[in-house]
Structures
1.
Amino acid sequence: MKITEYIAVLRENVKQARNQGKTIVLIPTMGFLHYGHLSMVEAARQGDEEHERNYIVMSIFVNPLQFGPNEDYDRYPRDLIRDSRLAQEAGVDLLFVPSVQEMYPEGESLTTVNVTKVSAELCGAHRPGHFQGVATVVNKLFNIVLPDVAYFGQKDYQQFIVIKQMVKDLNIPLKIALMPTIREADGLALSSRNSYLNPEQRKQAPVLFNSLRNAAELIQAGERNPEVILNTIEQRIRNESDGQIEYIEIRKAENLEKVEKINGSVVIALAVHFGSTRLIDNIIVEV
Ligand code: PAF
């Protein structure tokens, strides 16, 4: 595995791989890798153990642009030595670890990408500027790597929808793939931020997925009223944890529009604070 922090070096390596006829796969991350990230490498490597077909680029960059002034940019967990080992073992070909200076040489980006509407609500309503920061850095990564395909995890479902919209609106010539959320045995979605939880919060946090799964079962059993479903989730989280609910919403999975009645493919998404740790999760239900 090659590691570089430089855009020019990355471009040279990717160019060679492309000239060898390989498909360029980009897995953008903020590091502190867990199996959620590594499972995406595994998916790209499936049936390609000899690295003949796919050239896997993983980026690790804690993007300051997507953190609000009172958010966890400074304390976001970082461990490049461990990440490099895990990325190599998983089968990454090129690990891109740019500095802030390499990504934002002028200290800020005068150009930003703002995907309206799908960014406005859910997490976007509570994290002003977050999706603008995400869309801007992902657009930069797309322009730097020029991948054929880029992978994004379902845990950040709104992020996926924002990026999908950006790719469509700006005619970016690549495919984006939604990869399944990977969970601990008790249901908690893997996230680098789980490392912030104290033992009691960690014990309570699986209530998020348990309440979502229970909601999905109620829908499958015939309940179609979003309010009934939302109340059930809210009650369960309140009863079984000290988590402070930021939002629980049911939206059309395709474009995050509001739903009056549950029908077709919907996403139930939530954000809950455990102390100073903000966790998100979601489930997609088809009826
Ligand atoms: O999901 C993440 O880890 C980040 O938002 C991403 C896509 C790497 C952009 O910084």
2.
Amino acid sequence: MQDIMELIRRKDPEQREFHQAVKEVLISIEPVLEQNPVYREAKILERLVEPERLIVFRVPWVDDRGEIQVNRGFRVEMNSAIGPYKGGLRFHPSVNLGILKFLAFEQVFKNALTTLPMGGGKGGSDFDPKGKSENEVMRFCHSFMAELYRHIGANTDVPAGDIGVGAREIGYLFGMYKKLRNEFTGVLTGKSLNWGGSLVRPEATGYGSVYFCAEMLATRSKTLEGTTCLVSGSGNVAQYTAEKLIELDAKVVTLSDSSGYIFDESGIDREKLEFVKTLKNIRRGRIKEYAEKYPQAVYTPVDPALDYNPLWNHAADCAFPSATQNEINAKDARNLVNNKVQVVCEGANMPTTPEGIDIFIDSGLLYGPGKAANAGGVSVSGLEMTQNSMRLSWNRDEVDNRLKMIMANIHQTCLDAAARYGHAGNYMVGANIAGFVKVVDAMLDQGVV
Ligand code: NDP
Ligand code: 2IT
């Protein structure tokens, strides 16, 4: 394990998030490696941490003032042992190779847990959609796809959305792909409904996270009804997490964006959530406006001098980090535990630092790691691919029922794998082991490729 960590640190010293994601998996799978020397002989770990292919490209575009802008585009094709590369695209100024490699690495295990035939990949750009006009976003997406199209395909690599990439961006990306390839295929998921998208894909990550949370609570004979919930973020995952929680009679009291968060003690109801959806998805405004519209809510701007996030310091039963990586540090984790939060369910990818995770697990609260809890999004992406291949579409109940079944199955898979290796109740260890075994056994079957 130490050798592998040294290897990746030496090769790519600046890729901290990637090191973090790999280390967590390595610690979890130690008992599996001990019992299966064949993995070591086959250099499985060395192969697993090296992406099958890295694509880095120039994305030139012209802004509304007629000035030329240049961004960097990426696609990390991490592992295709169990299916075509599959994973989202992130457009955010913080995007770099280390972040995308961590996301692609997580995706490999997550996709294996879904039981659907999908390998792992991730891509994106350091492009910042904030403040850009509709036309600028379109020109950027077109330029991005003018290079990416030669590397992807319905049976090769199927991107989708992530931070900064939603239905609007997927539309522009698909348009350029179709024009260049002269074919209409399921090369992207998260498409709009009337041209190949799946029902429930927009809702899937948030709904799936809540279904996973309900499964965890059920192991302690509890339900979400009447609970108070902290949700961070206010994008795709946060909105549909809140929507499902409201439907299950839980009270959601927070939402956030990168500028600050709102605390609404009376609870965010359906009408208030509709306001948030319009604010974020159509007007593309800031969460601060929520407190202007609903004055009983308190808005707290981000304070860079604080070493914790006050959003995680409210009395609550459940926490759903649904914004970004490392948004819960050790101090936040301690605050959540001290406030008697019973379950932390990760809608975002790797939102908790390793120190934070240790605090959760030591405290005995129910901790649902992102690669299991947020797998609903990519699961319904997989179902979208199935529907595209069959050239038909399922109704809402059909997709939602499959999503529920997949989340319940992932939950059970995590519990079984954890128990088998002496970590009963540890969903993180269970998710890492179950995902790992599935992928590396496929790699062994396929030989040294
Ligand atoms: P969106 O772009 O729709 O929303 C992201 C939200 O998180 C926004 O509120 C954004 O605020 C906030 N945010 C982003 N970066 C930061 C940051 N550095 N600091 C604080 N807040 C930040 O993205 P999604 O909802 O799709 O993604 C949220 C998380 O869920 C990500 O970790 C993503 O990888 C993960 N995920 C997404 C899936 C999907 O299907 N979309 C599937 C599985 C996981 P602001 O507007 O100010 O930037
Ligand atoms: O992190 C993720 O799982 C996603 N952003 C969704 C990926 C997908 O292919 O739907």
3.
Amino acid sequence: MKLLEEVQLKLVSSLKGKDLLTLLDYTSEEVQNLVKLATQLKTITKAGKCPKLLDGKMLGMIFEKHSTRTRISFEVGMNQLGGKAMFLHSRDLQIGRGEPISDTGKVLSGYLDAIMIRANSHKMVKELAENATIPVINGLTDLYHPCQALADLETIAENKGNLKGLKIAYVGDGNNVAHSLVIAAAHVGMNVAIATPSGYECNSDIIVKAQEIAKANGSTITVTNNPVEAVANADVVYTDVWTSMGQEEESAKRLVDFKDYQINDKLVAHAKPDYMFLHCLPAHREEEVASSVIDGPNSFVFEQAENRLHAQKAVLASILA
Ligand code: CP
Ligand code: NVA
């Protein structure tokens, strides 16, 4: 990591006042610069010198679902930047009693500087953003988890020294985390191989868009049902839960459908010897990942979780400062 004196903070100024709903809306240059900024902010924060760029700013954080990392890292991140964050559970707001999200967006715009929202429906978050006059940041929807993907890239870059040309294998459910990871990796020119069981593939429109971005950055996105093929020679191996929040009634069926997609010692033997294992967390040991892998020497999951703090500060500072 660079010495503090060498760190010249470069906010991604083209993002000022913008939403972060999906990284499809950002340019590759913006994504690449956010990742660099995240590492810079990590360095200066660890030196106790995080600049108070968001003095007097207030972030509202609406949650329709559980969260450990997203809630706490956003609140701590706002504090480190000199601002404040307010936790708002949707059931306590009038949206929990049917007030339109469009009215909520207009009202909150009069009080807050930005909104972060974790919601069931991406469509609802888009409607909030269309009606709010302040930036809206997606803290996870059914389709995307962009803040997670930025922290993922930061973690890989800090440990591998570069991103372009690396191979990342995602094995598991073609879900929100997978979608944002594929888009983010395409923006930095990583080669992506996704292996899902049949019937659990990623959204094909998102894959096509990610493939276009990857092509422009000289990399490829491949899709398969074969986990060994995906993991072969990978620099990074990534998985997420087989049953996401809100899908609990499908969990027994998913345990059966995903049983050949566990990240275990046998599967990672096909990756490069110095592969990194990543997982957005929370994890289910002995389901999607063996304990020997997630608790083993190639696992970076806790550093990855910590990096949520710095990657989100990069977003907050660029959007709000
Ligand atoms: N990875 C992630 O978003 O974690 P939380 O659900 O705890 O916020
Ligand atoms: N795919 C998971 C991610 C949790 C951070 C979910 O949506 O529950």
4.
Amino acid sequence: MKRKVIIDCDPGIDDALALILAINSPELDILGITIVSGNVNGKKGEENAKKVLKLMGREDIDVYIGEEIPLVRKLITAEDTHGGDGLGESNYPKVGGQVLYGGVDFILEKAKSEEISIIALGPLTNIATALNRDEESFNKIKEIVSMGGAFKSHGNCSQVAEFNYWVDPDAVKEVFDKSNVKFTMVGLDVTREIVLTPNYIELIKQIGGDVAEFIVSITRFYVDFHWEQERTLGCVINDPLAVAYFIDNSFCKGFMTYLDIVTDGIAIGQTLVDVGDFYRKAPNGLVLTDVDSKKFIRFFLGRIFKDNIKDIEKVINNNKYGM
Ligand code: RIB
Ligand code: CA
């Protein structure tokens, strides 16, 4: 049985990789893509989602722009990380076509009529707005898997804050405090382990084809950013892990706990994972803490390059490359 899903995202380089993985995953029936401002503003995110759908021959999937500014904070985007076009300055041509708005209403309409889940890859502005607009319909959603936050891992926007939750901490607070929907936090503790290293990028390049070319092209800028920012060789691809975990929970381990978030001051965006049960509150989320990164990368590459699985296995199993 395919699982009906809406992917809420802010494409964004790793969002684009996550969309490619999701489109190549037969377990998913992607009902639509909703766009939230984050890495780039909503309009640019919509254009980028359409570029991926065109590349993958899936322009049948509709893209809806949702909320374009956070609930309270001023919007802060991340072109320094994802490039001015949001796809690593790859400057793929715009696809055009009708621009659809109403991302939040799309989520609520589907929640009312079908059993859906949400894979959230950006700030939670659309999710919180849907919750506040129609709580009854929202709570019919089966589960939300959200890339965001951090437990023990340091932040990527400050010492303590991860970008998605830092952009709109008030939206996260609404979801943590009011939602009754099963919630999994795919935070930096696990996504930081997923690095597309130069070896993997070269493997993708050698596999070749339009999709490989797209991935190599959009990640170049991201690799340079990672080197400049943190002397990482390659690039951390956060969002695809949320898709993989939604499909198969065995990629990660975690625990149920009470979650809260700091919404102002120096630690704004910090997720509070109450592992010590200090607040004595009921668990409201599952926090992921461990990931089988090799298993993930095999899954990721194998799903996207189905015809090249033998080559992928041969290269990854060859200890010379340390992959
Ligand atoms: O902190 C990483 C997250 O913020 C990823 O989803 C990335 O795409 C950005 O949205
Ligand atoms: Ca994202």
